[in-house]
Every structure is written in structure tokens, then in C-alpha cells.
Design goal:
It contains 13 helices and 14 strands. It has 421 residues and is α/β, with parallel strands linked by helices. β9, α11 and β10 form a beta-alpha-beta unit. The chain starts with 15 loop residues before the first strand and ends with a strand. It is an enzyme of class 2 (transferase).
Length: 421
């Protein structure tokens, strides 16, 4: 799909940048806390507290701890909203404040794009159990609306007073990356002046873990939860399910400069492809993942040799890590050996709908600050995963360009390219 044309006369008008970041993750309930944890190489993975997982083969997850929705929302809105929505609203408020906007965007020509993959799972499970036990009477009139996939985006719009386009898409694990790609297109199409965009998910429930157990995709390192997520390591045994929300503020560079805003990084371009192969397994040769990377670089007017940093999808599963490595080698060739490839899921677990936005925020911070967080728990090299994964310790790196990959169930590949400003 071609990028929208630049409709402005200002040379900076067609350039889209990130000016604000907010986050609630297993590493902290703010973006600065999350970033500090990433740079320190700290794991936020621990034993599940959301439900009694004693009888489950996997008893670990990446939970957002210490979040009080009452600090963000009044009681009525808490009662009508899902946890995914509550996390998204908190992250959006932080991102807008970080960008020097708001708290209301009512007059700002704003839009919202907040994607998720499994929003509403806890609410659906609770309502189903209540109905099975007590029948119709106890079901909340807010249940259906609160569990819908678009509701986190709508709750963010309500919170910020947004009256422009409000968009929500579900691309499984690529949802958060797609949100920023869609935000860029919205700005370049002239449909908004500011876009609040990102991803959220919160579905640490018994039914979810029963399903993931049946798929055999989860790590079972219950005795060492902080060592469980180990992308690209030969001893990886599966991914760690997690929750969280990461939201960014995007606007045109000309507008950001006009109001004196701090700029983290430019969103140069992106691309999507489909494996068209399987509902959960990646296409084994990495062909279409590689094509998404190639297209994203082409649309960003970059050669592979221009890129210094890749924030990998890096789930810590055998197939995904191997396939992603193959895709990077197909695109970058000999230059792949010079890439710094980092995998934040080693510290946070897999935030599902928010994972891609976390990776995007990492790229923006690395480009603006010159520090790349590590891939932790990397101890035994895998011959099939033979790149530089920034093992175990953060690294100083003055990079000009970065790429982030996201590969969702069903074979949805989404790639973004970022540039230093």
C-alpha cells in the first residue's frame, strides 16, 4: 500500500514524529520506570497473582503491579470499563502530558488509534461464570460494551475529549505496531493534527492460560520466572504471557517544532504483509516477514546498510526466533552482522496488543538517547540464531535508523522504520 501524499508546502509537513510516550508494563506504571527497567536489564516477570494458577503447567506472567484505576478514573467509569481500557487511559494521559499537550484535546484536531488483540477476556470470563452460577440478573448492563475490542480507543477518546477519527484494529501480536502505522497515515492524509496511538491488552485469566497451555507455547520455567523469557537463546522453551498498555503521541514535525515540543524520533514509514500460511505458526522460511521489512525500508527511502538497530519481535519461541533471524538475514545480507538486535520481551514478557508499541517507544528512546536495552537471559547461543542480540547488558549506540518487527498470529507481519531527528 502506497504512503499518503504530502499535502503541505512546508518541507517538514510530511514528516511524522513521536512527541509523547506513556506506559504501564510489568516493569512499572510509567514510561520512565519502564525505560529504566529496560536499560537496567531487569525482568518484570513473576508468579501469577491475578488468579490461583497452582494447578497450571505455567504459573508465571508479566503483570502490571501497583496500578490503581481509582487514581485515573471515577468509580462509574471503572465499573463500566475493562482493565485493558483502564490501562490504556492511564498510558494515554501520561503520553499526552509528556508531549506537553492537554489534558483535553477537544480543540486540537486529534484522533485516536488504540489497538488490542484480546481486550475484554477477563470481563467475558467473569460474566460467563456469573451467568452460569446466578443467571441473568447480576450481569452488568455495561458488560457487552466494556468487552468490545474498540472500547479502549473509545475510552481514551472520552478521556481526552477527542472528536476526530477513533480507530481500533486487531492484528494479534502486531496490533501495537499497526497503530503507529495507521496514526502516521492519518496525519499524512490530513485527517488529524495529533494522533494518540498505541496498544493495550490485559487478559491474564484461567481460560486464557488453559488455551495457551493447550497450544504448548508458554515457558514452564516456574521456578525461575525472571529467567523464563529468553529470546534467541538455545534453551528457550516458550514465551511469557503479559499485560500492559503503551501509548505514543504522534504529530507532524512542523507542528511539533512550531510549539517547541521535544521530539523523540521520526516515524519514517512502514509496511504490512501476510504469510498466508497458518493460524499460529510463522511461514518457516521467513519470506513474507522479510518482504515486510524490505517494503518498509523502501518506503522510508533507506537501504538495509543504513540501519543500525532492530527491535525484534523476539518472542522466545523456537519457531519465531529462528524465522525472524532468517528474515533479517534475507533483507540485510552481510550487513546483518553489524545490526544491534534487541528483544524487550526478555524483560516484560509478551504484552500482546501493546508489544509493538513498546518496541516502537524503545526505538524512539534509543535513537534519541544513544542507549540500547539488552536482550537478557542470553547464555547459550543457538546456531540458527546467529546475530548480535545485545546480550545481557545495555549498550551505547549512536544510531540514525531503527527497525521494529511485529509478527501476529495468522501470519500478520507489520514493520516500522524510525529515524533520529
Amino acid at each position: 500500500m502506497a504512503e499518503p501524499a504530502d499535502r503541505g508546502g512546508d518541507p517538514d509537513h510530511g514528516r511524522v514524529v513521536i512527541t509523547g510516550i506513556g506506559a504501564l508494563t510489568p516493569l512499572g506504571t510509567t514510561w520512565p520506570a519502564t525505560w529504566a527497567g529496560l536499560v537496567a536489564g531487569r525482568s518484570g516477570i513473576d508468579t501469577i497473582s491475578a488468579f490461583d494458577a497452582a494447578d497450571f503447567p505455567t504459573r508465571i506472567a508479566g503483570e502490571v503491579r501497583g496500578f490503581d484505576p481509582a487514581a485515573v478514573l471515577p468509580v462509574k467509569r471503572i465499573n463500566r470499563s475493562s482493565r485493558a481500557s483502564q490501562l490504556a487511559v492511564a498510558a494515554a494521559r501520561e503520553a499526552v502530558a509528556d508531549a506537553g499537550l492537554g489534558p483535553s484535546l477537544e480543540e486540537a484536531g486529534a484522533a485516536v488509534v488504540v489497538n488490542c488483540a484480546v481486550a475484554g477476556y477477563p470481563e467475558i470470563q467473569d460474566a460467563t461464570e456469573t451467568f452460569a452460577r446466578d443467571g441473568l440478573r447480576p450481569i452488568s448492563p455495561s458488560f457487552v460494551a466494556s468487552s468490545l475490542t474498540n472500547m479502549p480507543a473509545c475510552e481514551v477518546a472520552i478521556e481526552l475529549g477527542v472528536h476526530g477519527p477513533v480507530n481500533a484494529s486487531a492484528l494479534a501480536c502486531a496490533s501495537g505496531t499497526h497503530a503507529l502505522l495507521e496514526a502516521r497515515r492519518t496525519l499524512l492524509a490530513g485527517d488529524a493534527d495529533v494522533v494518540v496511538a498505541g496498544g493495550t491488552d490485559a487478559a491474564i485469566t484461567p481460560v486464557m492460560f488453559a488455551g495457551l497451555t493447550a497450544m504448548r507455547g508458554l515457558s514452564r520455567r516456574n521456578d525461575a520466572p525472571q529467567e523464563a523469557s529468553r529470546p534467541f537463546d538455545a534453551d528457550r522453551d516458550g514465551f511469557v504471557f503479559a499485560e500492559g498498555a503503551v501509548i505514543c503521541v504522534l504529530e507532524r514535525l512542523s507542528a511539533a517544532r512550531a510549539r517547541g515540543a521535544r521530539v523523540y524520533a521520526e516515524v519514517l514509514g512502514g509496511a504490512m504483509t501476510s504469510d498466508g500460511f497458518h493460524i499460529v505458526a510463522p511461514e518457516p522460511n521467513g519470506r513474507w516477514a522479510a518482504e515486510a521489512i524490505r517494503l518498509a525500508l523502501d518506503r522510508s527511502r533507506l537501504d538495509p546498510a543504513d540501519v543500525q538497530l532492530v527491535c525484534a519481535h523476539g518472542t522466545s519461541t523456537k519457531a519465531n526466533d529462528r524465522t525472524e533471524t532468517m528474515a533479517l538475514r534475507q533483507v540485510f545480507g552481510a550487513a546483518a552482522d553489524k545490526l544491534a538486535v534487541t528483544a524487550p520481551k526478555s524483560m516484560t514478557g509478551h504484552l500482546i496488543g501493546a508489544a509493538g508499541t513498546l518496541a516502537s517507544a524503545l526505538c524512539a528512546m534509543a535513537l534519541s538517547g544513544g542507549v540500547v536495552p539488552p536482550t537478557i537471559n542470553y547464555g547459550t547461543p543457538d546456531p540458527e540464531c546467529d546475530l548480535d542480540y545485545v546480550p545481557n547488558e545495555a549498550r551505547e549506540l549512536r544510531a540514525s535508523y531503527a527497525v521494529t518487527n511485529a509478527f501476529g498470529f495468522g501470519g500478520q507481519n507489520c514493520v516500522l522504520v524510525f529515524g533520529a531527528v
